[in-house]
Structures are given as C-alpha cells and as structure tokens.
Amino acid sequence: MYTSPNLIRIHALVLVAGWLLLTPRGSAFAGQATAATPSPITPPGQSAANPPAPASPPRAKTSTTPKEQAWQILEDACVGDKSGDRATAILVLGLIPNDPKSANLAQKALTDERPEVRAAAAAALGNMGSRASIPKLKAAMEDQDPSVALAAAHSLDLMHDNSAYEVYYEILNGQRKAGKGLIAAQTSMLRDPKKMAEFGFEEGMGFIPFAGIGWGAIKAIRKDDSSPVRAAAARVLARDPDPATTKALTEATGDNSWIVQAAALEALAKRGDPSVLPTVERYVSDEKSAIKFTAAAAVIRLTAIKPAGLRKQRAVSGHKQP
After folding, report:
1. Domains of the chain in sequence order
2. Which is deepest, 34, 58, 106, 309, by most CB within 10 Å?
C-alpha cells in the first residue's frame, strides 16, 4: 500500500505534539506517586526537607536545696489547717530578719482568724525588727484579744516605738491616754497565771520567742520537770561568745525535752555560726512541729550567713597573698 510522505510527516507531528502535551501531566502523576509512597526514612505526610524535630529528653528533676526545703516547710505550715502549727511556724519567722518573704508571711498572719496566730505574727515582726510593719502593729494593738494587743505592744517596744506605752499605760491605769482601751475590761485575765501562760508570756520578758506557744509548752511540763529552766538557759546562751557554748547547744538539740531542743535550735540560729548547719538540717524532718519549724527557720538564717562568711574569708586570704 502506498503511503504519501506528507501523510507520514503529519502523523509524526501529531505523535510528537501529543507526547509534549502529556509529559507535564505525566510528570505530575509520577511526582504524586512518589510522594504517596513513603520512603523508609521520611514518615508519611512529612517532607524530607523538613524532618520532624527530635523529641525533647525528659527534664531532669532539679534537686531541692536545704534552704528551699526549709522555706517550703514553713510556707505550707503558715497556711495549713492546724492553728497550732500556723502559730508556731509564724512565730519562728522572727529568726529570719531582713527578709521580705518572712515579713510578708507574718504580716498576712496578723489577720488570721485565730488569736494565737495573730499574737505569734505580732511577736515575730518584733523579733525580726520589721520597722516597715510598725503601722500594722499599731493597728494590732486594737485587737479584741488581749494577747494580740500585748504581743504587738511588746514588738513595738522592741523597736523603740513609743506607741507601745499606750497598752502598758492601760494595764496600769485601766484606760489608755487617748481613751478607754480594749484590755482594761479583761484585767482579770491578766492576773490569772494560766491565762498569762496561755497568752505566751514569760515573767516580764514578753512573748516567748522559742518553739511552741506558751500554753502548749506549759501543758507538756510536769511539776518536777526542769526543761523550762534549761530552755531559758539555752536562750540566754545564744549571746555567749565562747565556742564551747556552740558545742553545748549542739548537744542540747538531742535533749529528751522538745522544749529544750527547740530552744537550743533557736539559740544556734541566733549565734550565726554556719558550721552547725549539718546538725540543724537533721531536724527539719522532725515529727514535732515546733522542732521542725524552728530548725527550718534556723537553716534559712544560717544559709544566708554562710555566703557572707565565705566572702569575708576569701577576701582575707586574698589580702594575705603577696
């Protein structure tokens, strides 16, 4: 059969044109097929150019320092359900001066529903010397509970604020200089030794600055018990510069009486010797709240002193070098 050369050329041109028209579409199909087939490395639906970010390793738990642990113990107790624990934890904040956190916790406790907690807060602010709290302490002298008013007055007196004299004037004369006060109507309570103990006061020495609230301590003491005397001795020894006293107080932290233990821990805190930190830290897990809270406050205080002592020691060592 004869075929015209022109007809052959026309067929060839049609085939070429069809191939050119189909090639892009075919390439697209091929690309889609390639994309739809996951490679052994790239997960389905994930472009090889943007590989998934590697999973972050689990964050290691940060270790808690003794100071952080001590603060946690006190903060939890300050807002706990047990009023006795709140009062004791607030009271030992007085061992942590020049610290905004301790002052803020004590100031908040001035509005606690329980009078023993408010009294402890007033005493703590005086013991830590928080002059910024003087206006709140003046307001606390108007508290309906005499123990709170007396504790506030005692703290103001510690900071040499003359407002304290209003309460003492009232106790002596039955009314305040500016008018009748709140305590005069309850002077019978002030003549009752048990009530005075319940208020947490010691003969002429103001609010008991160590361990539990006074009445709790009194109830735990038998007539033949010498622990109050030894606790008072530990309190006074806080000011003794003799290094041998540090050893004696350290040993007293293991006393059979929790009252003596707490007093010894407080005395060690006030002496400001960071070398006793290992001993004090052992008691932040004590079962007795008064001991645990006092130890926690002591840890915070002594930890703050430790860096300053090291800096001083390094400065002296550096000065001696040629």
Report:
1. 66-306 (1.25.10)
2. 106
